[in-house]
């Protein structure tokens, strides 16, 4: 009780006065320190528990705490070295403790270390469970680990975890985020057992709204409209159709797949809209060339209580640029600078205005706007300016822009090299 209320000193006093302590007593105190933001103190207590456990505790008690309590707090607190030190001092480790370390590595972006841990588990004769594989898969979010992802997927199928709901969701997400082909996504979705598992999990694990949002994001990334509609049907069956996060995912999925009318239909049926809702619909319209409709939709948004963010302004400014709405683009840019927004325009917004002037052929205004920028122009701004010069044949300004861009790129390369040398 004291630990949950943030009264670590009181919790420690009660603990010190407790004559007989079990694993739950230790767990409560250490969890209290973790919640209070004192992971080093929690680590020292855990090491003390290990020493006591060597004489008075069973190995199962120690492993239970290691898996359930300490590891997530230590890893999330940024004390990876302490986590490894505690892990290496444990004499008896089971699947739970190994899985906890795999999860910690995955959450901190250490995919290689997570893979090494799983390999060591297998060498020791320990069989990873679905949580182990799920954590490992979640760290494979780029093409650099594509081969590893394939290997683990094959092992998952071999061990019978391929229809587990959390494994399916993670596989779908990883395949989409690593720029996999849509065939891989559809191969996963084509199995009837997968849909049965997502719909009515035989193990009693209900699919939550976050799982549906993840699958929808994967379907949208790969433009898998048929599979996305199947997921939509399952959402109705599961009772999550009214969840705002899921509804936003549906709007985004349909928008990314080019099914703009479906995206607008879902959006219209929503009882409430937040900034993500508008972002998802506007992005879908703009991405598929509906520039004027994007502007009209933004005007609708302005009449609501939802405040546009920097991302929405960038979407609308880009749409204005592509359809040649110079005056509207400048109006929105000035609105962005003058409105009560948490962030001022960024370099990408200025680059879009430069592109807007360039497409309209107003190179003299481009240069004037460029020279009055309150922030340092980035590569995207120089590229937009150079593109406008090349289209309209302004050789002098093009040469100046190209020189600046070259200098900037060389500086970026030098900084990147220095950073790599320092690491």
From TrEMBL:
UniProt keyword list: Repeat
Alphabetized Pfam families for the sequence: PPR (PF01535), PPR_2 (PF13041)
Residue stretches spanning the membrane: none
GO molecular function: RNA binding
GO term, biological process aspect, one: plant organ development
PPR repeat start and end residues: 22-56, 94-128, 129-163, 274-308
Database matches in InterPro entries: PPR_At4g14850-like_plant, PPR_rpt, TPR-like_helical_dom_sf
Keyword flag Repeat: yes
Cross-referenced PANTHER family: PENTATRICOPEPTIDE REPEAT-CONTAINING PROTEIN, TETRATRICOPEPTIDE-LIKE HELICAL DOMAIN-CONTAINING PROTEIN-RELATED
Protein name according to UniProt: Putative pentatricopeptide
Organism expressing this protein natively: Rosa chinensis
Lineage: Eukaryota, Viridiplantae, Streptophyta, Embryophyta, Tracheophyta
């Amino acid at each position: 009780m004291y630990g949950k209320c943030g009264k670590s000193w009181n919790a420690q006093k009660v603990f010190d006065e407790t004559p007989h302590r079990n694993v739950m007593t230790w767990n409560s105190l250490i969890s209290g320190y973790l919640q209070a933001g004192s992971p080093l103190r929690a680590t020292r207590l855990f090491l003390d528990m290990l020493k006591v456990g060597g004489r008075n505790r069973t190995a199962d008690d120690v492993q239970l705490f290691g898996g359930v309590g300490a590891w997530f707090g230590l890893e999330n607190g940024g004390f990876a070295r302490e986590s490894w030190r505690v892990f290496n001092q444990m004499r008896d480790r089971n699947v739970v403790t190994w899985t906890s370390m795999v999860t910690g590595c995955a959450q901190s972006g250490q995919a290689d270390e997570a893979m090494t841990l799983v390999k060591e588990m297998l060498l020791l004769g320990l069989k990873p469970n679905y949580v182990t594989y799920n954590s490992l898969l979640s760290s494979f979010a780029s093409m650099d680990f594509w081969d590893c992802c394939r290997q683990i997927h094959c092992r998952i199928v071999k061990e019978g975890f391929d229809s587990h709901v959390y494994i399916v969701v993670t596989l779908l997400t990883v395949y989409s985020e690593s720029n996999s082909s849509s065939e891989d996504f559809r191969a996963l979705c084509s199995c009837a057992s997968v849909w049965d598992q997502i719909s009515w999990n035989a193990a009693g694990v209900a699919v939550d709204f976050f799982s549906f949002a993840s699958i929808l994001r994967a379907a949208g990334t790969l433009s898998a409209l048929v599979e996305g509609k199947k997921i939509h049907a399952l959402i109705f069956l599961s009772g999550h159709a009214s969840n705002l996060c899921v509804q936003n995912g549906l709007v985004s999925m349909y928008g990314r797949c080019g099914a703009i009318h479906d995206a607008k239909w879902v959006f219209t049926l929503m009882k409430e809209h937040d900034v993500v809702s508008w972002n998802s619909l506007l992005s879908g319209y703009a991405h598929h060339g509906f520039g004027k409709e994007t502007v009209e939709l933004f005007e609708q948004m302005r009449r609501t209580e939802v405040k546009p963010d920097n991302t929405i302004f960038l979407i609308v400014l880009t749409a204005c640029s592509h359809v040649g709405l110079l005056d509207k683009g400048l109006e929105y840019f000035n609105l962005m600078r003058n409105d009560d927004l948490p962030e001022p325009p960024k370099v990408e917004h200025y680059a879009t205005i430069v592109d807007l002037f360039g497409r309209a052929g107003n190179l003299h205004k481009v240069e004037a706007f460029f020279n009055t920028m309150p922030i340092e122009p980035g590569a995207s701004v120089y590229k937009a300016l150079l593109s406008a010069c090349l289209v309209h044949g302004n050789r002098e300004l093009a040469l100046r822009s190209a020189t600046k861009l070259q200098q900037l790129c060389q500086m970026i390369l030098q900084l990147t090299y220095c950073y790599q040398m320092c690491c």
